[in-house]
Structure formats: structure tokens, C-alpha cells
């Protein structure tokens, strides 16, 4: 689920846009959480305020975590920010190759908490990482991360189809999750590639249940 300033968003061609109910109004994020917990026990929350403005929505994380387990991508740049997200109630703080300030900062974060997952960000099939990582490939970066100690890796392709051969190679080293860019009907491919699971955008769920009373309520 994408969240910006308390507003549930959908992925858009030019970036996330507000998600609207059938009546045309904004969705109440707590109504959306009520809908999600009917079928799911874990929510991957993308905190756009944290990513875009370095101001994670800690109050929402705290409230959501009362009802569902959370993995939160809150735009972590350094170790201390990961702790803030965990203290707010996240089960895991997601740190990304695109934002975290290199392997030394990851080692520092890992020394503070083991409740972390690492996102390997891809853009158009190419690795998207800060220069401090000095990466050679997604697989090479995955090996570096796992040598530090992290087990859980999230592979996030953007602007290109999922490369299942890359998923398979990274999943061979430990638990690997595939983020978005495909439909739930692709679940068999996740299993075939040996991945732990897939992360699906909230908009696909909303489209399947447009008449949900919880989501259409005032």
C-alpha cells in the first residue's frame, strides 16, 4: 500500500496518485486496512512521505500495526531512521539500495537490529543503487548484503518486466520477495523461481472489489 500524507495512493504513469472510492472521494486508510485484513496478515507499506521528504508517517505506522503486521519502506537513509520505523510498530524496516548510504551504514543498522529487509531496486532492468555500494550486478549486491547478515531481500523491478532468471539466482541464496510489476496470476512463476513470495499493489485488490462497503463508506 502506498501512503502519502495519510492518503492511500495508486501507482500512476507519472508517479503515485490518490486512490478514490466509487463515489469519487479519497479512501480512508483505516477502511482500507479493514479490507486488507480480511484476506492478508502482512502489509508492505510504502511510506511516500519518508521516501520523498524524509518524514515517515510514524503515527500511521503505529496505528496500522495494531491491526496487521507491517513491513515498511519509509525512505531509510541511515541506521537511526530504521530504528524509528521499528519503534513505531513495524515488524521489519525495509532499507533500499537506492537510498541507504552504503554497506557501512547497513552494517551499522544490522548492529542495532536484525529486523531489517533489503530492497534491491532495479530501473529498466538495471541496478539502481547509491554509488557507495559500488555494485556490479543485482546478484553481486545480494551476496554483499547477505554477507553482512541480512536474510530477507526484496527485488523491486521498475519500468521493465520481472527477470525471472535474476529472481531465481538471488533466491538461491536465501529468502527473496518480488515486488509489484506483475499480477497475482503470476504466483506460479514466483514458486517456480524459488522466491518466498510476491508483493502486489493495493490497486489490484481495490479493482477486484469496487463495491466493498468499507471502501465506499463516507
> Globular, elongated, flat, extended or rod-shaped: what is the shape?
globular
In total, how many domains does the architecture comprise?
1
Low-confidence stretches: 209-214
What name does CATH use for the topology? TIM Barrel
- Average of pLDDT: 90
Order of helices and strands: EEEHEHHEHEHEEHEHEHEHH
**What is the name of the CATH architecture?**
Alpha-Beta Barrel
Profile the largest sheet: 11 strands, mixed
CATH class: Alpha Beta
Written description of the protein model:
The chain has 218 residues and is α/β, with parallel strands linked by helices. Helix content is 35%, strand content 22%. Helix 4 runs parallel beside helix 5. The longest helix has 11 residues. It starts with a strand and ends with a helix. About 3% of the residues have low confidence.
Amino acid at each position: 500500500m502506498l501512503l502519502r500524507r495519510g492518503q492511500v495512493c495508486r501507482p500512476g504513469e507519472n508517479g503515485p496518485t490518490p486512490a478514490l472510492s466509487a463515489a469519487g472521494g479519497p479512501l480512508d486508510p483505516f477502511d482500507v486496512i479493514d479490507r486488507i485484513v480480511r484476506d492478508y496478515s502482512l502489509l508492505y507499506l510504502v511510506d511516500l512521505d519518508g521516501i520523498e521528504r524524509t518524514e515517515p508517517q510514524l503515527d500511521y505506522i503505529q496505528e496500522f500495526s495494531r491491526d496487521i503486521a507491517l513491513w515498511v519502506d519509509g525512505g531509510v537513509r541511515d541506521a537511526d531512521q530504521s530504528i524509528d520505523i521499528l519503534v513505531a510498530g513495524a515488524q521489519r524496516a525495509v532499507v533500499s539500495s537506492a537510498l541507504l548510504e552504503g554497506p557501512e551504514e547497513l552494517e551499522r543498522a544490522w548492529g542495532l537490529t536484525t529486523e531489517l529487509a533489503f530492497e534491491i531496486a532495479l530501473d529498466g532492468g538495471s541496478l539502481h543503487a547509491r554509488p557507495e555500494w559500488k555494485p556490479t550486478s543485482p546478484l553481486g549486491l545480494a551476496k554483499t548484503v547477505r554477507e553482512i547478515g541480512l536474510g530477507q531481500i526484496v527485488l523491486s523491478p521498475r519500468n521493465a518486466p520481472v527477470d525471472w532468471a535474476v529472481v531465481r539466482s538471488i533466491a538461491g541464496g536465501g529468502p527473496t520477495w518480488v515486488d509489484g510489476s506483475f499480477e497475482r496470476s503470476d504466483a506460479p512463476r514466483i514458486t517456480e523461481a524459488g522466491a518466498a513470495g510476491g508483493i502486489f499493489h493495493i490497486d489490484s485488490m481495490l479493482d477486484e472489489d469496487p463495491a466493498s462497503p468499507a471502501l465506499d463508506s463516507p
